[in-house]
Specification:
The protein contains 16 helices and nine strands. By secondary structure, it is an alpha/beta fold. It folds into three domains: 97 residues, no CATH class; 106 residues, no CATH class; 104 residues, no CATH class. The strands form two sheets. Strands 3-1-2-4-5 form a five-stranded mixed sheet. Strands 7-6-8-9 form a four-stranded parallel sheet, sandwiched between helices. Strand 4, helix 10 and strand 5 form a beta-alpha-beta unit. The longest helix has 14 residues. The protein is globular, with a radius of gyration of 20 Å. The termini are far apart. The structure holds iron/sulfur cluster (2 copies).
């Protein structure tokens, strides 16, 4: 039986649907073509499932045009798990040797954990955030009582979680987190993947915002004098259901108000950074980022996931701040990079 048969019902739901979620897909909207709508991607999957076409490079290239943002599933009356089906389709493309190279390379770039000591009880997966954001987040975690935290030390095998998103097998050894009771990630996508991985089943997995919420002292002065726009990352919001905690943390850092994008919380958009999509040599990922803030007031943008911040900043021209950077500035007297100023929003 084809690996796609387990998704038969979801595939058929989409194949017979009049594209009811087309408006919700940030990639379809940005690229303005039917092939990359959730419906278009799933019809390709159905053609492969029925043996009407092979798994070829054209199908694999199309399947790479999905960020896994979950907006289609969120608006679908069937809660159809489009990205789950596409991950299976992508794995068939990898097995057939026709998957596009750039997302594969993206998935294999090194990731690292930052444990107090290898095998320690609290381990932090720093992923591929910029060194300044890693230092800021570790400092905030320490201020919240998660310590001792050392410098990034223990490299994880490549492709451990993003590999699954582009169809490659997970490469995380079963004992990777032996002895850890808490695993803290900087990116929500890493937390979501860890929650499903056998190597992490004995540990509590938290996004860093969850790990610090309610454990930090009140800032004594605003870090930004006016309003700021909080953007939900799709993986932290729809993925982990974390909406209020980052807003509360940000509100305490502002002289003004937390402002919202038109599409926010459960209906929040997507920046285009995840699931290998941003690695494609294509204008779509940049346009998705621009669309994410297009209707929003011209204010500093704050987002909790460092991968999103790093993707939004160059494509939107906005001042984009990782939330951890602002928190570190406010709360940590011994900030690890005191020479870093807020005039440098994203490293
Ligand atoms: S995800 Fe739902 S709304 Fe979107 S095409 Fe499939 S069945 Fe239709
Ligand atoms: S998960 Fe997001 S990017 Fe992928 S098809 Fe659905 S709406 Fe489009």
């Amino acid at each position: 039986m084809s690996a796609l048969e387990v998704h038969r019902k979801a595939i058929l739901n989409c194949s017979f649907c009049p594209k009811l979620c087309r408006f919700a897909c940030p990639v379809a909207e940005a690229e303005a073509r039917e092939t990359v709508t959730p419906w278009g991607l799933m019809v390709l999957v159905d053609d492969v499932r029925r043996g009407r076409r092979p798994v070829d490079s054209d199908a694999a290239e199309a399947w790479a045009h999905c960020t896994g943002c979950g907006r289609c599933t969120q608006v679908c009356k069937h809660d159809n798990p489009v990205f789950e089906v596409l991950k299976t389709a992508r794995s068939l493309a990898v097995a057939a040797g026709v998957a596009p190279q750039a997302p594969q390379a993206w998935s294999l770039a090194p990731l690292a954990v930052a444990p107090g000591e290898p095998g320690g009880p609290v381990q932090v997966l720093v992923g591929r955030a910029a060194p300044e954001v890693i230092a800021d987040t570790l400092a905030v975690l320490e201020a919240a009582g998660h310590h001792p935290l050392g410098p990034p030390a223990l490299p994880l095998p490549p492709g451990w979680r993003r590999g699954a998103e582009v169809g490659a097998p997970l490469a995380l050894p079963a004992g990777a987190f032996e002895g850890a009771h808490t695993l803290i990630t900087l990116d929500a996508a890493d937390a979501a993947a860890l929650k499903q991985h056998p190597a992490a089943r004995r540990a509590k997995v938290l996004h860093w915002v969850q790990a610090v919420e309610g454990r930090l002292p009140e800032p004594t002065a605003p870090v930004l004098s006016g309003d700021a726009l909080y953007l939900d990352s799709c993986r932290l919001g729809r993925g982990l259901g974390v909406y209020d905690a980052p807003r509360r943390l940000l509100a305490a850092l502002l002289g003004g108000q937390v402002r919202e994008a038109i599409m926010h919380r459960e209906e929040g958009g997507c920046c285009g950074a995840e699931a290998g999509y941003a690695a494609l040599d294509h204008s779509g990922p940049g346009r998705v980022a621009q669309d994410a803030v297009a209707d929003a007031p011209d204010l500093p943008v704050v987002i909790a996931d460092p991968t999103c911040a790093a993707h939004l900043a160059p494509h939107t021209g906005r001042r984009v701040y990782p939330l951890a950077r602002l928190l570190a500035r406010a709360l940590v007297a011994r900030a690890p990079h005191p020479e870093k100023h807020l005039e440098e929003p994203v490293p």
